[in-house]
Design goal:
With 214 residues, the protein is an all-alpha fold. Helices cover 77% and strands 0% of the residues. It contains 6 helices and no strands. About 10% of the residues have low confidence.
Length: 214
């Protein structure tokens, strides 16, 4: 058997190529295991709590309704009580007597003028009077409360007087009577305001002197 150089070269080339291809081929990889999911499952959220404001409103409405029911029961019991009926009659009887005595034509004019005077007087006391007192470094909560109460009473009295006059007389149908009563009430109210302001200033001066002595 004779040696053939071509066959030897072919075998060497084939063997080297196989080794190179085997080294370059990427190794087989196994799929990585998926990481374990340790996240806890979402829990159902608790129902939303009722707002505090709504609870307070419901409680207030309930208490108000209960109070109104109790007042109605008490009022009904008092109205049916003979002693309470006698007491109410005793209170109203003198008022009826005075009303009969004052049933003259100019009564509603006079009542309107007096109520107007009260409105003017107390309104000026609350606005101008308290401003003057503050400028004198004086302040009295009692005086303010008293003037505010007087103004409220005068306004209510003026409204009731006007209603009564409209139902029982011709006072509201006469512009001259209404205007003259208003002017008279305004003049009297200004005079009462000046008197009240002078008294308040005297009281402030007295408190100042007493504080200086102490």
């Amino acid at each position: 058997m004779t040696f053939q150089p071509r066959l030897l070269i072919f075998m060497l080339v084939f063997g080297v190529g196989s080794v190179v291809m085997a080294q370059n081929e990427p190794p087989a990889t196994t799929p990585a295991a998926a990481p374990a999911d340790n996240t806890p499952a979402p829990q159902a959220s608790p129902p939303a709590a009722e707002p505090t404001t709504e609870k307070a409103e419901k409680t207030l409405d309930k208490v108000t309704k209960q109070t109104e029911d109790e007042l109605k029961k008490i009022t009904k019991q008092v109205d049916q009580n003979p002693q309470a009926q006698q007491a109410a009659a005793g209170i109203l009887q003198p008022i009826y007597i005075v009303a009969e005595a004052l049933a003259f034509p100019a009564f509603h004019w006079l009542a309107f003028a007096l109520m107007s005077a009260g409105v003017f007087s107390f309104a000026l006391q609350l606005v101008l009077g308290k401003l003057v007192v503050l400028l004198r470094r004086g302040f009295s909560v009692k005086e303010i409360a008293s003037d505010a109460a007087g103004l409220a009473i005068s306004i209510v009295g003026l409204v009731l007087t006007t209603q009564a006059a409209a139902e029982n007389s011709t006072f509201t149908q006469s512009p001259a009577a209404v205007i003259s009563a208003t002017v008279a009430g305004a003049v009297l109210g200004i005079v009462l305001y000046l008197w009240g302001q002078a008294q308040e200033l005297d009281a402030v001066a007295g408190r100042t002197r007493a504080a200086a002595k102490r």
